[in-house]
Amino acid sequence: METIEHIKLWLEETPDHTCFRVNKLRNFDENELKRILTAQSYELKSTQLPHYYFLKPDCLIIDRWPDNIIVNSGSHEVIVDPSCGAAVLRGSNVFAPGVMGLASDCKLDEVVKIFSDIDGKCKRGLKIEYTGRKQYVGCGYLKKLRCSLFDDGIQPRQWHRCPNIISRFQASCFE
Hints:
Elements: H1 2-12, E1 17-21, H2 30-44, E2 52-56, E3 59-63, E4 76-80, H3 82-89, E5 99-102, E6 111-117, E7 134-141, H4 146-150, H5 168-172
């Protein structure tokens, strides 16, 4: 059990630097990189930009932001399934199929806290705060509302059946 806690703490820690592969077949504009980092510095309320350099012509290294940055994490929680949470910790974005729970009063582009359901017991479509075991994996901007995530369900609407027979719903119309 001690090993799992050690791994969790390691995953929560921000790496000292991040490595990006630069596509040398396309034009890389260093001024565009500075513009992106400057925009992030305004959002993070930081006066300094992270140091960056090229290890090789196609290998960009960017150091982490200063430790004194306080991120506004919002008041609402998004619960994602364990595999989505693991992917987020490795740098992925959150995709709609991984979202399990979301409050109904969230607004589009609102800052939300993202938690991973550790035990996999969160039921899809949860509206209230999840009280099971969860792990904080980050924060982000809400890009889809609850109605577009859960109201249509996950079952596809079937419009053609292989054996061309009437569905139970269509048959009930004949009664």
